[in-house]
Amino acid sequence: MARTQPKLASVDGSNLIEIEQVVKTFSNAAGEFTALRGIDLSFEEGEFVAVIGKSGSGKSTLLNMFTGIDHPTSGKVLVGGVDIYAMSESKRSLWRGRNLGIVFQFFQLLPMLNLLENVMLPMDYVGMYEVNERPKRAMELLHMVGLEEQAQKLPRAVSTGQQQSAAIARALSTDAPIIVADEPTGNLDSRSASHIIDLFAELSSRGKTIVMVTHDPSMTKRTSRTVVISDGVIVNETIAQALPLLSQSLMKELSNKVEKIGFQPGETIIRSKESIPKFFMIVSGAVDIILQGRGKDNLIISQLGMNDFFGEIELMRGGKSIASVRAAADTPVEVLALSREDFSWLMEASPLTEKSIGNIVQKRLEEKKQADRRKRKGLFGRKAKTE
Ligand code: ADP
Ligand code: MG
């Protein structure tokens, strides 16, 4: 399937897609609504990006800004160094056909064309491949998404999931260097969804840039980066994932208060029985929670990973740390740290977050109690043997 990529003007050292201070305001009879409120965002060539956010947060509007489908109210969008809104409408449309493969949220297959013809349509539009080569190429794509047997059917004669798969095949039909997909797996069963993600991952490993809106949090494990949008603003991913009940404005305020700290593999972050004045959220890597016994008797009671937090037990209850926390042996750890004062501010500002952290504290204390019990038994067992 490897073919030469249509060339986007490459500008050395800069990003493939640059979105600068983009604002989008919709005006209609009901008044004005600002869906994007000053977005700064860039994507590098070859990135596989997941865009997540609640329904209505501005995900589709954001995609429309760099696919050239809709105009920003203000701000600038550069793709491959080209200001796409400086082009005429017709030039932009051709530019889009050559450079972007788009999977729309509602597919937008042409109802009077069969699936094969739908997939061939973009090839016709940009004049890609010899005319007699197009059906074969379109068939390969339909095969790739499991639709070769439905090729001659009209969209309405196949299931919603199959229509979505056909829309994905169509987006790949001109071998565009950038694939933009709006909830491409929303109508697929988990097996087909996973197959599509495999396909995207492979395309990105071969240099295509893929930006995918998704509702499914498990998909973000497969992408190289996650962008979180909330009420038209990009928010810090770790904060949004670790503390999802915060309002968008609190997420933004919090982003300015946290400090990023790195730890080497195996490095101690918190020592037990010391007071820790901070709340930590894990950006990358993993940490071990360790109960210290006498001498070398250590027991790892749990491991926390990306978007988990720790330090909250002591901050909420006061007192010294009940366990130590260490970067896992095999990987460095990056955390966002929040001071005690800022943590108190946050709990006061978001009672829902305070309540949910409170529940986690209860759960973790219970786990610790059980671990203590196991540990005591273990020690007695060993003692009994040596005596
Ligand atoms: P998402 O894709 O995250 O669900 P959208 O980008 O579709 O969200 O929409 C973001 C917000 O902008 C929503 O509140 C939506 O109602 C509003 N919106 C989107 N398109 C229009 C439009 N053409 N006219 C008016 N409001 C719109
Ligand atoms: Mg949408």
Structure overview:
- It is a single chain.
- The chain is an alpha+beta fold and 387 residues long.
- Helices cover 35% and strands 26% of the residues.
- It has a six-stranded mixed beta sheet. A four-stranded antiparallel beta sheet has the order 2-1-4-5, with helices on one face. Strands 11-18-13-16 form a four-stranded antiparallel beta sheet.
- Helix 3 runs parallel beside helix 5 (160-171) and helix 10 (340-349) crosses helix 11 (351-386).
- It is elongated, with a radius of gyration of 26 Å.
- The site of magnesium ion has 4 residues, from helix 1.
Question: Which second-level CATH architecture of the largest domain applies?
Answer: 3-Layer(aba) Sandwich
Give the low-confidence spans.
Answer: 1-6, 380-387
Global shape: elongated
Multimeric status of the protein: single chain
Keywords:
Jelly Rolls, Rossmann fold, alpha+beta, four-stranded antiparallel sheet, elongated, single chain, six-stranded mixed sheet, binds adenosine-5'-diphosphate
Sum this structure up briefly:
By secondary structure, the protein is α+β, with helices and mostly antiparallel strands. The protein has 11 helices and 18 strands. The chain starts with 16 loop residues before the first strand and ends with a helix.
